[in-house]
Amino acid sequence: MITDRISLNIALKYLDQFEQNDGEVIDILFSRRLHDRPTAYTVKFDNIEVLRAFIAKYAKVITFRDAECMSLSHYQLKMFTVLKNNTDKNLVFLDGVQYKTKAKNITPAVLENLNNGYLKTHSEVYSVFRDIMINEYILIQEEYIDCGYIEIHFPEAMERLKQLYNKYK
């Protein structure tokens, strides 16, 4: 729940900036990885308002006392479309390394801000998320591991997670 909120809020911040500078952001696609599963899947939001509503409902602000009894997920922004100059053909996508576009309507400075700002911050959050990922072969382990296991087994990662949460919640 904590990494969900952090990773979604960071993306929301940069998507908001994109929308303020270049046009309405729609068709937002994320990959979502659960900390106790090896695979990721995609999640799509129609626009920024739908993303905000999702964060408010499913990634609420919580206390750290409750954090370790909830599953953790990590979201990464994969692509989105910008409505600009009467066209929806302005796709921005992650090519694995950085965000790119083939559209001539996208302002290079806004794209650069996404690459320099979002990717750097996202990588910080993903590093902490990766450090606390459950790395066992039994996938139902949350049913038998007591709450508090993250703090006990990953104290440095938990401290970094608290710092990021306080900064980006």
Share of residues in helices:
40-55%
Low-confidence stretches: none
Number of helices: 6
Tally of structural domains: 1
Straight-line distance between termini:
11 Å
Shape field: elongated
What's the gyration radius in Å? 17 Å
- Give a short account of the largest sheet: 5 strands, antiparallel
The number of distinct β-strands equals: 5
Strand order of the largest sheet: 2-1-3-4-5
Strand content: 15-25%
On the 0-100 scale, what is the average pLDDT?
83
Helices and strands, in order, run as HEEHHEEEHHH
Pairing-aware structural class of the strands and helices?
alpha+beta
What would your notes on this structure say?
This protein has 169 residues and is an alpha+beta fold. The protein has one domain (2-168). Helices cover 47% and strands 25% of the residues. It is built from six helices and five strands, in the order H-E-E-H-H-E-E-E-H-H-H. The chain has helices at 2-22, 48-58, 64-67, 108-131, 149-153, 155-168; strands at residues 24-34, 40-47, 73-84, 87-94, 99-101. Helix 1 packs antiparallel against helix 2, helix 1 (2-22) runs parallel beside helix 6 and helix 4 (108-131) runs antiparallel to helix 6 (155-168). The model has no long low-confidence stretch (mean pLDDT 83).
